[in-house]
Design brief:
This protein has 608 residues and is mainly alpha-helical. The chain has a single domain, classed as MFS general substrate transporter like domains (Growth Hormone, Chain: A), CATH 1.20.1250. Helices cover 75% and strands 0% of the residues. Helix 4 packs antiparallel against helix 12, helix 21 runs antiparallel to helix 24 and helix 22 packs across helix 23. The radius of gyration is 24 Å and the shape is globular.
Length: 608
């Protein structure tokens, strides 16, 4: 593996109030016509600090950073895989298993709002500070989930945990982008994902052991200790490099926002810089529209009830308000000035549709594997993690290939096409407990994983390589936010289909084999207890499987339809030649790329 380096030049440091890119936090009433230029030209405190760090960073330092990133990623990755399993049992214990999608929608919406916000925090305060903040949210949310006694408290804990989880996911990607060249970006971007190669196989055994020896509560709660311990090496490594940069005089002219503005000025500046109003409006739009879709169904549909109609109406009304606000905001959550180039909106479209489509088959995949395919807990956990396992291996190998060929687009287009083929297989193998059915769903998940290794991370790298360093964290956050909006949409639509279709299907199928009128309601609320009562081969289990098969078929058909525009966005990408620099802003990979690069860079720092 070639050692990746970045240009080791001292960052631009001046001692006045513009040193940190805040231009003395001008008041909204006194903005000049040059503000749009100023927002691009000045560097944020976090960017100045990380450039100072990279200027003194040695090869050994880089490998320590990479190892620390791997360690913290291993912790949150294994926790995430296990928590995906445990929350099925948590919602079933609360007798609200169908509300699993509601919990996932809330998590995705909060993640979408937290990603660009975390990017701005990283730019304003620094990378180390963001790690510390993420640890606090991660621990608090985990504790709340562990002690929850109802679905509402569990969902609240999930939201708090998601903020910390989202922050650290963004941070590790930004740190890697900070210290790698464009041609090596894809390869090293897979470091946080490498733990999935291990976790896919150990997670099933861990989940089985935990659920056999204790409950899901301890399975979630123990990560308060484990995650904190695994985050410490990254905090310590970055802190040591930061001290070295300060001793070398690289930060002599650096002044924090607090020292420049004071406490009151800092609070006011952060209010506008983090776009608090935009965050609230974004959460309102997606939460108020999507969550009702997941709770309106069931055996007693409630589409006309006030608790469903009122949030939907308010959410729809908030859409134009959000758009108008973002167009007028000084530091918008969504920087529309950077969204005109297809080098930006095409990757965003890919991020949106990838998760939208994936959650059509993935939201209730674990439940399907247990109920319809008759896998054990260990096997179901492993199969549900196959996508991550295969996509990481594929993507890591692809990283070496891209390092040599210096192009991304051809792999992205091929990956999206293969994604569509995998959904075709999932429609065919949608729930059958015999060996051929089990092998079919495993093969489909493997193919989905191969496709997933060819375009999500490459699309992110395609976006990043054309960004100025000043815009890197915020735009990476926006990309990941779009990714999570796709998750929210996928969870909402899959939840709506599940709650609207499955109750009726269960009632119909079970009425053909039993006179037990309450069995359908019981199975819908807690399918794991129901399947334990009726093994494969009994008429009741056959009826349950038939109901689940029909519902999963509709979900996968919706997913394959979303693959069509996904391929279109991939085809719209630019195809720059990657270089050994940290970014390509102001330079294209070849002659036909240079004009779009220059024009986009002038508009806000995005190149072809």
């Amino acid at each position: 593996m070639a050692t990746t380096t970045t240009t080791s030049t001292a960052p631009e440091l001046v001692s006045n109030k513009e040193a940190a890119g805040v231009a003395a936090a001008p008041s909204r009433a006194s903005e000049s016509s040059d503000d749009s230029h100023a927002k691009v030209s000045y560097k944020s405190p976090g960017v100045i600090r990380v450039e100072a760090l990279t200027s003194v960073m040695t090869t050994v330092d880089r490998w320590f950073v990479f190892f620390s990133v791997f360690l913290v990623a291993y912790a949150y990755g294994l926790d995430g895989t296990l928590r995906y399993t445990y929350q099925n049992y948590a919602t079933a214990e609360f007798e609200d298993h169908s509300l699993l999608s509601s919990v996932n929608v809330l998590r995705a919406v909060i993640a979408a709002a937290a990603q660009p916000t975390a990017g701005k925090i990283a730019d304003v305060f620094g990378r180390v500070e963001l790690v510390c903040i993420s640890v606090v949210f991660y621990i608090v949310g985990t504790i709340v989930q562990t002690v929850a006694t109802d679905i509402q408290t569990f969902a609240g804990g999930a939201v708090i945990y998601q903020v910390g989880y989202t922050m650290v996911i963004l941070l590790v990607e930004v740190i890697i982008a900070d210290i790698t060249s464009t041609r090596a970006r894809l390869l090293f971007s897979y470091i946080p994902a490498l733990p999935f190669i291990i976790n896919t196989w150990v997670s099933g055994d861990i989940a089985t052991a935990v659920l056999a020896g204790t409950t899901w509560r301890w399975g979630i709660g123990m990560w308060c200790i484990i995650y904190t311990a695994c985050a410490l090496p990254l905090i310590i490594t970055l802190s040591i490099i930061g001290r070295r940069a300060r001793k070398a005089g690289k930060l002599d002219g650096y002044r924090s926002l607090y020292s420049q503005l004071g406490l009151q000025g800092l609070v006011v500046d952060l209010f506008w810089r983090l776009d608090i109003i935009g965050i609230i409006l974004m959460i309102a739009v997606f939460a108020l529209i999507l969550v009702p879709l997941t709770i309106a169904g069931g055996f007693e549909a409630s589409w006309s009830s006030p608790q469903v109609v009122a949030p939907l109406v308010i959410g729809v009304v908030c859409i134009p308000v959000f758009v108008i606000w973002e167009m007028k905001a000084k530091h918008p959550l969504v920087p529309f000035a950077l969204m005109h180039d297809r080098a930006v909106w095409a990757p965003m479209g890919i991020a949106l549709l990838l998760n939208f489509a994936w959650y059509m088959q993935g939201d209730y995949l674990y439940t399907m594997l247990i109920v319809a395919f008759d896998f054990s807990i260990t096997a179901a956990t492993r199969v549900s993690s196959l996508y991550s396992f295969v996509s990481v291996i594929t993507g890591f190998i692809l990283g070496f290939i891209v390092f040599r060929v210096r192009r991304l687009k051809v792999f992205i287009v091929a990956g999206t096409a293969l994604f569509m083929v995998a959904f075709g297989l999932l429609i065919h193998y949608r729930g059958d407990p015999n060996p051929s059915g089990q092998a079919g769903v495993i093969g489909a998940e493997v193919l989905l994983g191969i496709a997933g290794g060819m375009f999500p991370y490459p699309a992110q790298a395609s976006l990043q390589v054309g960004l100025k360093h000043e815009n890197l964290a915020v735009m990476t956050g926006l990309y990941l936010a779009t990714y999570n909006i796709g998750s929210a949409l996928g969870n909402a639509v899959s939840g709506a289909i599940w709650t609207q279709v499955l109750p009726g299907a269960l009632s119909y199928e079970l009425s053909l084999v039993t006179s037990n009128a309450t069995l359908a309601v019981t199975t819908f609320g807690d399918p794991f207890t129901a399947v334990a009562m009726f093994p494969v081969g009994t008429p009741e289990r056959g009826a349950i499987i038939a109901a689940y098969q029909g519902t999963q078929k509709l979900l996968c058909i919706a997913g394959i339809c979303l693959c069509i525009p996904l391929i279109g966005f991939a085809a719209a990408l630019r195809n720059p030649r990657l270089s050994d620099e940290q970014n390509l802003s102001g330079e294209g990979g070849d002659e036909k790329d240079r004009a779009p690069a220059a024009a986009a860079a002038a508009a806000g720092g995005v190149s072809a």
